[in-house]
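pasting for the record
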Amino acid sequence: MRSSLPDRIVIATHNPGKLREMRQLLAPYGIDAVSAAELGLPEPLESGGSFDANAQIKALAAAKAAGVAALADDSGLCVEALGGAPGIYSARWAGESKDFLMAMERIEAALRERDFFRPEQRRAWFVSVLTLAWPDGRAESFEGRVDGALVWPPRGAMGFGYDPIFLPDGHDRSFGEMSPEEKHGLPRDGSVALSHRARAFQALARAYFPSG
């Protein structure tokens, strides 16, 4: 049996951009979010071999350390021509300095080396797995995915990470050019979420807020 969510929850992240999006997604449900960074919790080693495994590692570590429910996201960009890379290593491609421009340039260079310039040669998808964990070790995961193609040069200064080079299918603007409202949708009114993280959260919301 699922437990109801508390009014306050820990977001297991030290990433300001990810925290901002998670707070925006939780806000309509009246849930206050504090980050693992704000609580001074250490970042666990993400040693899993999948998005789900890494999300569980982070969520369970935060829940046990804080003594309350925790929500963790593990997400990344998967490029078809690169065999799904960077995938679960998306953050690592940006290095310790979190230089995502460098990471985007690395992807672009790899595509150019293959003479891949057409949209159909630049297929990619974003994946997000959200894991909700409790101090007693219970955990449940929800996955979201969005498909699209990569563009160059980067477009827009909104969002974070690889958003500026990702053009979702059916749209003419990158995630970096879209407002949070456009990416997240409105879970309470049943509208379809666009971003991978919002789709994962929408699945969680259907499970925990069925009448919302």
